Amino acid sequence: MSGSSTGIKALVFDVFGTLVDWRGSIAREARQALEPLGLALDWPEFADAWRGEYQGAMEEVRSGRLPFSKLDRLHRRNLDLVLARLGVDGEVDEPTRVKLNLAWHRLDAWPDVEPGLQALRRHYLLAPCSNGNISLMVDLARRNGWHWDAILGAELARDYKPKAAVYLHACAALDLKREQVLMVAAHSADLAAAAAAGLRTAHIARPDEAGPGRGESAPSVAVDFAARDLRDLASQL
Amino acid sequence: MSGSSTGIKALVFDVFGTLVDWRGSIAREARQALEPLGLALDWPEFADAWRGEYQGAMEEVRSGRLPFSKLDRLHRRNLDLVLARLGVDGEVDEPTRVKLNLAWHRLDAWPDVEPGLQALRRHYLLAPCSNGNISLMVDLARRNGWHWDAILGAELARDYKPKAAVYLHACAALDLKREQVLMVAAHSADLAAAAAAGLRTAHIARPDEAGPGRGESAPSVAVDFAARDLRDLASQL
Fold first, then answer.
1. Comparing C-alpha atoms, which of B70, B66, B59, B94 is closest to residue B80?
2. Which residues in chain A (162-201) have CB-CB distances under 8 A to chain B?
3. Does residue B210 sit in the same domain as residue B177?
């Protein structure tokens, strides 16, 4: 299936930031979980602090110092680190931590994503190629009404982006050549790695991903497509 | 998500025979590919012969004699074997073999499957747990209008059913306990292995799977549910 002359058959997507608003959703979830315990934190800052541990935890796996662990498990390690650093370790019980950790399964999509994916699905195979684990991707798709053809990404490859293996496993699972697969992300580093692995690339502008003005409004690397949002990408393709 | 008091959260499905009519579809595809070359074979028998090599090829992987290879590759090995045995090896060129081998991506579903999966999807997570590879599952879903939550099975586990690892990888990918996952199949041996691994089981009657009267009209092992078809299973759950 292909709707264009580009030879592209499948689109694979970064998810956190590109498709979902992790910051606003995690701030909301953290407040819902922790405010009843009497904690009064800056909730967007809490989201930033939790997300701030993300790359470091994955680097432990990418470097081989840790065997592959699902992102849910790394998120839990990071949650414990952040609660300790904030000095509220003793105030957050285990059931609250378990529930809050699954906040990443309850993130809300940017408003263009559901109609954009529907339009793209008419002409292309669609799959996430995220560092999130399979169950996390399944829950986000159910919550936000997405129809993926498959769940690809880190758990299938048993390694984390931007390692080339993750992009290459996605292409291999679909039996496609690398140049037939378009990696879609709001992060230039992800796209640079995908391009180095041989995939085509599309940048989506999310200028406010990590707060007002703290996101990429344009790619800082060469890409095949640069789009305002997923609907714009669909019309460009 | 759960629509019943059984504790079941997800249904995972055998595909060949349980959801799709491999025999009728392969007979049709073989005829379309080979008749133009002047071959006049008994097409349903050709389908039986090709399918007849299925377990033996997978046993090479299950036993460790072969490293994991996708089912598409095993199907190709089996196609070459069958063409040689029929004495038509020299009459079938390479492009025809490549195209015919992908006939397994073009199988048609039994008529109850699409409405049955739609009904089940309202209450459960749904995924194939097949020995078919991911791209094969993706193509069957597109052809037959199925909406899976994820593609699980042999390629994720890098081993073949009825090895326990395949069922257990499916449960682990969904972050579910084994008793929260219902394996659905038309084959008692598949269900016996799933039950031994700790999953719940549902048998679907496909009495004519391999030709008239050559299929299971009832399970020959203990199962949690026995259904006439997927709509019947949906109403039982």
1. B94
2. 173-175
3. yes
| The total number of structural domains that make up chain B | 2
Our CA-based measurement puts residue A179 at a distance from the nearest CA of chain B, in whole angstroms, of 17
Residues from chain B that touch A135, judged by Cβ atoms under 8 A, are 173-175
Which residue(s) pair with A126 in the sheet? A11
Q: What is the pLDDT, as a whole number, of residue B179?
A: 98
Residues of chain B contacting A148 with CB distance shorter than 8 Å: 150
The secondary structure of residue A179, as a DSSP letter, is: G
Q: Note down the domain range covering A166.
A: 10-21+107-236
Question: Could you say which of B134, B147, B174 has the minimum Cβ distance to residue A150?
Answer: B134
Answer whether A72 touches B (CB < 8 Å): yes
Which residue is closest to A151 within chain B, CA to CA?
B150
Give yes or no: residues B129 and B15 share one domain: yes
CA distances from residue B33 to A170, B83, B233 in whole angstroms, order as listed: 30, 13, 36
Is the CB of residue B27 less than 8 Å away from at least one CB of chain A?
Answer: no
Contacts of A1 in chain B (CB under 8 A): 142
Q: Answer yes or no: is A4 within a domain.
A: no
Indicate the helix (H) or strand (E) that contains A225.
strand A225-227
Nearest to A181 by CA among A201, A155, A163, A210: A201
CA B48 to CA B1: how far, in whole Å? Answer: 40
- Predicted local distance difference test score (pLDDT) of residue B5: 77
- For residues A171 and A228, membership in a common domain is answered with yes
For B153, which DSSP code? Answer: E
A93 touches chain B (CB under 8 A): no
For the cut 50, the answer to whether the pLDDT of residue B2 exceeds it is no
Residues of B in contact with A2 (CB under 8 A): none
Minimum distance, in Å, between the CA of residue B212 and any CA atom of chain A: 33
Q: Which of B105, B131, B162 is the last residue of a domain?
A: B105
Residues A66 and A158 in one domain: no
Structural domain contains residue A156 = yes
B 137-166 → A contacts, CB under 8 A: 137-138, 141-142, 147-152, 155-156
The pLDDT tens digits for A100-141 are 999 999 999 999 999 999 999 999 999 999 999 999 999 999
Query: Do A77 and A36 sit in the same domain of this protein?
Result: yes
Task: Provide the 8-state DSSP code for B112.
Answer: T
Q: Is the ipTM of this complex over 0.90?
A: yes
Same domain, B77 and B190: no
Query: Do both B14 and B30 map to the same domain?
Result: no
3-class state of residue A66 by DSSP: coil
